[in-house]
Structures are given as C-alpha cells and as structure tokens.
Fold this protein.
Amino acid sequence: MKIAFYSTKPYDRIYFEPMSEEYDIKIHFFEVPCNEETIPLAKGHDAVCIFVNDYLNAQMIHELKEMDCKAILLRSAGFNHVDIKAAAACEIPVLRVPSYSPEAVAEFAMALLLTVNRHTHRAYTRTRDFNMNINGFMGIDLHGKTAGVVGTGKIGQAMIRILQGFGMKIVAYDPYPNPNLDIEYASIEEVFQRADVITLHCPSTRETKHIVQAKTIELMKDGVYLINTSRGDLIRTEDLIEGLLQKKFGGVGLDVYDEEGGVFYEDRSNDIMEDPNLARLLSFPNVLVTSHMGFFTREAVQAIAEVTLKNADAVQKGLPLENAVQ
Ligand code: NAI
C-alpha cells in the first residue's frame, strides 16, 4: 500500500517511518497541507493520510475516487474536517484514531488552567528580565472550587480525575451522561452558572458550535476560567473577546482556535498577523493560546502512528475496519 501523507512534521517521520516498514506500507511524506490545490499529489497512492487542519470536501473526495483511492486515514480522533457523507457515497472508508492518549490532552488542559490561574507564563518572562515583582500574578486556590466539564467522554473523564485530585467539585454536562461516573450532571446552563472553571471536552458538531457565546458567557460567574482543548468553533471568538474586555474571565486557555487552519503548526513569525481576532486574543495578559498541541506527547504520537498504520493494514488485507467513521 502507498500512502500520500499530508502536513508532515519531523516527528511524524520519526514515528511513522520505522513502523511502516513492519507493515510493508510505503509512505510518501508531503509537507504541504491537504487542500484543493494539493489533492492531485494523492494520484498513484492507495490512501491519503491527513491531520486536523487538513480537510477533504466533497469535490476533493470525488477526485480521490477518480484516482482509485481506497482509504482516508485520519491521524486524529475528530473527523469534522472530512465530508463523511461524500466519502460514504464514494465508498471510501474514513478511518480515525478514536483514542490515543486521553491523558495527554487532559494533562495539557490542566497545564493551561494552572498557567492562566497562576500566571506562570508571565512570571517566566518577568524573572528572566530580573523583574522579581509579583504584582498582577495573584490567582485562586483550585481546591474546593467547582469545575464545569462539558463532555464526559475519554478526555473529559481523564480531566475529571485530575480535577478531583486537585480537590475540585465536578458538575458536568453531556447529552449522554455516564452512569458509572461518580459526578453530578446538570444542564449546560447550570454548568455555566455554577462553575469557577469551565473546561470543554465535547466534539465539534452542529449542536456544540458556539456553545460559548454572548448568551452563555452572560450566565457564567465573574472571574470564571475557561479552557478549550477540543475544537475552536465551540467558542464564538468575537463574544469571547467582548467578555474579556468586560473583565468577565479570570483566565482563558485555548489550545484550539476557530481560524487555526494554515496558522497553527506553522512558523509565521516573519509574517504580519492578518487575523484581528487572534491578534486581540494574544494581547490579553490573562489569555494563553497554544498551537493545538494537547495531543503532543511521545505516548500519544506513538499510539497515533500505530493505530493509523493498523487501519491502513486492515484496508490492504481486507480485514474488518474497526475504526471506520460511520
Ligand atoms: P469522546 O468521543 O470520548 O467524548 C466526547 C464526549 O462529548 C462524549 O461523551 C459525547 O457524548 C459528548 N458530547 C457530544 N455532544 C455533546 C454536547 N452537545 N455537549 C456536551 N457533550 C457532548 O471524545 P474524546 O476523545 O474525549 O475527545 C473530545 C474532543 O477533544 C475531540 O472531539 C477533539 O475535538 C478534541 N481533541 C483535542 C486534541 C488536542 O490536541 N487538543 C486531541 C484529541 C482530541
């Protein structure tokens, strides 16, 4: 099997190359993202392999069909960047990595919370400048506070365990509550009203788009902390900025951003920032933006490589496709 591998970074080669030999799979690594312009590169390959800021719309999927592409391999759990209906119509299976390391993302969400609460991102630069003043760095005790968890799937549950370890009370919202969890569920409105910290762990769907917007921000406590490691479009950025200007938030940690495509994962430090919302977000002292890196641990990247290649192998051997997106 030959795979056209888009959006390659050096760490992808390190993990995928040796393992692909074991499976007798040939990977052609392309650094470019997968989009309308680059889709012709897939010609001559049996599968394409894409990451979170690549996309495949209906037209591109039809082109893949004409190229006799047999599988779309996602190096992610989320699949909102692929037109699943078009892929089904073209009979091209879409295979994902449903779970690689929920702990990796949850631990990162906690890192964001601890950072924006205790201002360690700013303390780092201040002390390097031999400015030992701590003014402006006061945070809150997390112990005894209430964390609102939106989405109690694999990552949400890992986050709940961490938050409970910090002595926090949990109030959660999920349309499919998990009876095995020893936590309190409430409506989304109540979660937003009661939480001192809100952490988002639901997928991007029609229902969750802009789950955080002016109306729901209004429900939140003053000084609330908001963490998003899920998908950028869960938050309406304009409304978040307005809330920040109204001093609603104690701190905001964002590993994902609605308009992250083409920007996150790239070194754009020599470019003029054209996105006014991103520029505004980066200007707030109590906001930390990271570049969609919650997944980025050795264990998680290793697991992504393993499952992606197993998915490819199942296609080449005609085995059941356990990780197919329906
Ligand atoms: P999961 O599928 O195990 O859990 C998602 C949970 O969200 C489920 O319990 C589901 O019932 C719930 N849910 C569905 N609709 C909802 C709604 N309207 N409101 C509240 N909850 C809702 O997924 P997992 O593995 O926990 O991942 C969660 C999200 O994390 C993914 O969808 C992905 O967007 C994001 N992610 C981010 C990464 C990063 O590097 N920052 C890496 C991996 C995933």
Summary: Residues 264 and 291 are 5 Å apart (CA to CA). The domain at 2-100+297-317 is CATH 3.40.50.720 (Rossmann fold). Residues 77-78, 99, 102, 105, 150-156, 173-176, 201-205, 207-208, 229-231, 255-256, 292, 294-295 surround NAI (CB under 6 Å). The first helix runs from residue 10 to 22.
